[in-house]
């Protein structure tokens, strides 16, 4: 009788090649009940041969991500511990495009796949992978609208489960680690309002207004009139309802509109919170020029954006997040963003780094998602819920490892009133 080949040791050999390590930093459980890897290590479970086939065809982050989204693999224990072990191992710990296996390494993967009966055609990507055409010119109005719709038009009820009552989808500002998510999000909005110097009667543009949280709070607490623009129809519908429920329709206007099409300036201040990551490096001069043109002399712009902290090597454009989460998104380094704002004729008044704050925010969102997992999977589909779980957990680890950061950059159009002598005017 032929002895059956245990799957886990073979999978461990494949995974070590994919990760670029001599030994895997995980306890690996296979579909046949076999196990391999160090005892007590974080657990990754391979549920089917299809997971191995995905690694054969895409031996890197993308193959593993597709397998996770499809449910072919799972992290049944401590999610953050399992993902941290993966992301800190070998090639995964290096920023930039993923190095493909050598011919000899690929031969080893192929042999193990054959022994385990995993050979076959390339499995179709999970349907949650972005369908946006990945050719042609990026950041046209049409393609940007499709990219935004892919990410934000997932369902307002789903986002409500993840984000909580504040409905704020950007880094919160935490007084300490015990601060609640809602309090931290409202503290962030208030901080932005103070940095912008908002006063009663001012007219404010909120670029990428989301579900209207900044617009409503700024109007209620600071007495300003707000125009909020977003490319997401679902966001705009909910934001408009929240404005109406707050009795602010005479002071807050929500539009489905590209920022490049806003022509009814000038504005006394502009907030751009978590939006400029969608603009793109090549379009950044136009972004700065258009927002500067919409500001009155002396008006302030607050640009709140994720930054790439890993040096000159950019993120891999074919990795999980560009394909599943933020199609066409681009993170600029802090120096590059400051340079773009200054080159566009804006004076930098203040820069505040909030990297640790975003890690806390993302962990809170993951807790919300896991606490409401069944409902979230029902609302958006299990694959989409798994995308969000993977991306938010991996992003939290990225901020904790200093691979990424997030910064609020406050700038002013020259002319008009001088800013305060000290930043105590807005802290």
TrEMBL record:
<dbReference type="InterPro" id="IPR003333">
    <property type="entry name" value="CMAS"/>
</dbReference>
<keyword id="KW-0443">Lipid metabolism</keyword>
<dbReference type="GO" id="GO:0008825">
    <property type="term" value="F:cyclopropane-fatty-acyl-phospholipid synthase activity"/>
</dbReference>
<keyword id="KW-0949">S-adenosyl-L-methionine</keyword>
<comment type="similarity">
    <text>Belongs to the CFA/CMAS family.</text>
</comment>
<keyword id="KW-0489">Methyltransferase</keyword>
<dbReference type="InterPro" id="IPR029063">
    <property type="entry name" value="SAM-dependent_MTases_sf"/>
</dbReference>
<dbReference type="InterPro" id="IPR050723">
    <property type="entry name" value="CFA/CMAS"/>
</dbReference>
<protein>
    <submittedName>
        <fullName>Cyclopropane-fatty-acyl-phospholipid synthase</fullName>
        <ecNumber>2.1.1.79</ecNumber>
    </submittedName>
</protein>
<dbReference type="Pfam" id="PF02353">
    <property type="entry name" value="CMAS"/>
</dbReference>
<dbReference type="GO" id="GO:0032259">
    <property type="term" value="P:methylation"/>
</dbReference>
<keyword id="KW-0808">Transferase</keyword>
